[in-house]
Amino acid sequence: MSLTVSDLMPLLRETLISPRKGARMILDLGLAARVGWLALALMAVGSAILTHLTMVMMSPEAVAYWGGAMGSPVNTAILQWVVMFVTVHAVHRLGRMRGGAGTLAESVVLVAWLQFVLLALQALQLVVQVILPPFAQLLGLAGLGLFFWLLTNFVAEIHGFKSLGAVFASVVFVMILASMVMVFVFSIFYGDPTAGM
To answer: Which residue has the higher pLDDT, 14 or 55?
Structure first.
């Protein structure tokens, strides 16, 4: 199977309606891991651009909060890529530790697809920020919920897990743990984001 630009919207719609079915359709494309890694790099760049366009419309106080970590599009893209890199390996290795059957290539491709879906939502949020600013935050919260819902379904599909509840609990636990570790690591390189406020 091949993937063209015209295929993206039907796949996106199917993913939102039935995440596991959408994930299986992506996996059935048989994309190589290197395609997934390239897609992740592109998603990181795209997300960084949209993030900084959004920051232009934010208050100086809100922008200052992020400190050096979001100080430039390059820093933001690196941060995004590191988060996605960690997510890929967490999905693969922890899933396998729990008896899952997924491969690293499947994890890379589906995390890349997840980021594409979130990037589309981020673009929509930017438009809403211009037209109806109060609703942009609500869309951001919806995006957070969508992230956890899609990731839960994708992990379940990759590894053949049946219980979405158990997968969701594992995802939340791992995300909290990973966030604590990454906050500590990035504070070393970029300093406390609240410094100077």
So the answer is: 14
